[in-house]
Amino acid sequence: MMNALPPLHDGHAPFTLQQLFREALYAFEEWDSELTEPIVTYEGRVIPIGFVFEAMRECTDIVPMNIVGAVTERLTKPWEGEGPLDQMTFSTAARVMRVLVRKRLLANGTVDLVAVSAHAAEDQNRD
Predict the structure, then answer these.
(1) What's the number of domains the chain is made of?
(2) Which helix (H) or strand (E) holds 48?
(3) Which of 78, 99, 108, 124 has the smallest CB count inside 10 Å?
(4) Which top-rank group of organisms is this from (predicted)?
């Protein structure tokens, strides 16, 4: 599934992947009581938002301030980074959001189901 997304280039994400990250963040914001992980679409493919966040784990691009606010308002502890908030990278934001997705799935009791279906999708894409 990860290979269905555009790759990073020397730590930089193409604009399409940055836009997909933003869509995944909005989908997370709208995630209320459903048990399953929200999805976004990319080039006609359905992608769970956790995969988008995972794809951005190594991205060194700086996150726009509106996204920084959307990420930090979900933290239970105040943000403490090495630099000011305007220097948050997509890597940091992606790691935070991936943890939040996993916590939500664990709370819903669906994390195992998602892992199984993700592995099945990866196997299907390899064929």
Answers:
(1) 1
(2) strand 45-48
(3) 78
(4) Bacteria
